Amino acid sequence: MQPQLVTTPRKLPVFVFPQNITFFLDDQSTHKQVLTLYNPYDFPIRFKVLCTAPNKYKVVEPEGTIKARYCIDIVVRHTALVFSNCNVVDKFRIQMQEHPTKQAIGQRDVEAKLLPGTTEAAGRSTPDPEMFQQLPINETRQQQSYALIAQNRAINKYTLKPPRSKHDLFRGNIQNKNTEIYLSSDMNYVMDKGGTNYIALIAGIICIVGLLLPTEGEQNNRVPDYLHLSINFKLIFSFVLGMVTIITLRL
């Protein structure tokens, strides 16, 4: 005698809309709700509606058959409309069965609740937790952020950071420590519409004049002695003139 094969019952998802139903005590239009059961499969299925509080509800056609690729509507009516039943969560279980064996193949629970008042009053007091809305946009803060980004870009564009250098002059060390020349975006340096930097231009002229003056120790009767500059001063003028030239070319 061959042993009989035991088949495991298959489980299929159950499609029901809506996922929960709400009744309002003072709104008669909500005392009757509709549940839609879907059968997207290629074979007919049976359904059966169960409830945790059957004495409070009346369901039209609590069981039946759904054709293949078809849907049906079942009407659920609340029959215990008293204030003591408000805010109590009941559940309906939609059980799907094979046709015609009536073997359970899936189920879905739907919550039901009775609320006091009407739909409009409940909507004003407690918003629907499933309704998603767009958040407000702070346009002023966003514009300030864009302005700050543009200002930082302007500062970075006109910022010059020369490398650190070290020179030995007459047994003395002249060390340039991270010299930075900034041209800020708020027009700290006076510039015309053509982009001319008058401060850099004046500094360059002063450096050129200083370099043209005679050096200490030279004999020149045309220039007074107090205008004879030392070599260290002329080196400083040369360095500043070079920096001014770089700034002018970058502009």
TrEMBL record:
Q: Which PROSITE patterns match?
A: MSP
Subcellular locations according to the entry:
Membrane
One Pfam family of this chain: Motile_Sperm
| Statement: the UniProt record of this protein carries the keyword Transmembrane helix | yes
The annotated topology with respect to the bilayer is: Multi-pass membrane protein
**A cellular-component GO term for this protein:** cytoplasm
Sequence intervals crossing the membrane:
195-214, 226-249
Keywords attached to this entry: Membrane, Transmembrane, Transmembrane helix
Annotated MSP domain residues = 4-140
Domain of life the protein comes from = Eukaryota
| Keyword Membrane belongs to the record | yes
What protein does this entry describe? Motile sperm domain-containing protein 3
Q: Give the originating organism.
A: Bombus impatiens (Bumblebee)
Starting at the broadest rank, the lineage of the source organism is:
Eukaryota, Metazoa, Ecdysozoa, Arthropoda, Hexapoda
